[in-house]
Amino acid sequence: MTATITKVPIRPKVRDRHHRGLSRWVVLAGVTVGALVMLVPFAFMLLNAFKSPGDYSSGGPLSWPTQFYTQGLRTYWSEVNFPLKLWNSTLIAGSVAVFGVIVSLLNAYALGIGRVRGRLWIVGLFLLANMLPQEALIYPLYYVAKEIGLYNTRLSVIIIFTVIQSAFGTYLLASVLGTFPRALLEAAALDGAGKWTVLWRVVFPNLRPTLAVLLIFFFIWTWNEFLIPLVMLIDNQTQTIPVALASLQGDRLMDAPTTNAGALISLVPAILFFLIFQRTLARGITAGAEK
């Protein structure tokens, strides 16, 4: 009686993700250095925010402060009425984010699913509108706002940025919906679903991660806008945080510690918003990559 020997194939060793050679560590080191370089301006801002005007004038922006100076924070908070400016920026950016996503979704649904005649030309016009600089739009917007009585109101800025942001959102979502699975749409049509039902029961759940990413981007982009709010909002009661920060700089004199303190306070809400929705942003980008 002879025993049979079964040869077991030897699997090649697979190197795990922690041992991929020198190139991985070179890329990691490059990314780390790039991140540190990007953090340098924020470090200078933090350093000078708690520096007295005397220390700044004697030692310059790179010197270490001799005392923990907080008067700049209190001055900025009281002079520009920061709680009111925070409310204005939050109201404008939040409204633009919500309305911009809704308008983008409706436009893209008509272009991507509805198959409007001349769809490619319309999408190209949205792309072209997104490329227009704000400097080219500022005078027509100013003139129209004056004529219809919306000048120096938060509503005017909300309408303007909703249109601007939705131009990009429409172009992006129309490209996504152009490749939407037709089988889902046909199955919904066989079940008797109308256009609105298809939009909210079929299209919207599948686009939810992408819409969440657009919402976050629209909020941050609108929060940082300066030129249009500077021209359209001239009253202290309607101005946003970036405009209030610019008001600290005079023609011939600038209080650098107070300006740095104001920039530090103004940056905190945006950072908190990003940290709160960081996981939503990461899930949305990952879902888009998987699709």
Draw up the topology in text.
Layout (H helix, E strand, L loop, with lengths): L21 H28 L3 H7 L11 H9 L2 H32 L5 H13 L2 H15 L5 H24 L4 H9 L4 H29 L3 H6 L8 H6 L9 H21 L1 H13 L1
Helix pairs in contact: 1-12, 3-12, 4-7, 4-9, 5-7, 7-9, 9-13
Pfam families: BPD_transp_1 (PF00528)
Keywords: Cell membrane, Membrane, Transmembrane, Transmembrane helix, Transport
Main location: membrane
Q: H/E element string?
A: HHHHHHHHHHHHH
What's the helical proportion of residues?
over 70%
Mean pLDDT score: 82
Given as residue ranges, the uncertain stretches (5+ residues, pLDDT < 50) are none
Provide the CATH architecture of the largest domain: Orthogonal Bundle
CATH H-level homologous superfamily name of the largest domain:
MetI-like
Count of distinct structural domains: 2
CATH class of the largest domain: Mainly Alpha
**Radius of gyration in whole Å, from Cα?**
26 Å
- 3D shape: globular
Query: Count the strands?
Result: 0
Describe the fold and architecture.
The chain crosses the membrane at residues 25-47, 86-108, 120-143, 155-177, 198-223, 261-277. Its main location: membrane. InterPro entries: MetI-like, MetI-like_sf. It is a multi-pass membrane protein. It is found in: Cell membrane. Helix 9 packs across helix 13. The chain folds into 2 domains: 27-69, no CATH class; 82-227 and 266-290, MetI-like (MetI-like fold, Orthogonal Bundle). The chain has 291 residues and is mainly α. The chain has helices spanning 22-49, 53-59, 71-79, 82-113, 119-131, 134-148, 154-177, 182-190, 195-223, 227-232, 241-246, 256-276, 278-290. The protein has 13 helices and no strands. The model has no long low-confidence stretch (mean pLDDT 82). The longest helix has 32 residues, at 82-113. Helices cover 73% and strands 0% of the residues.
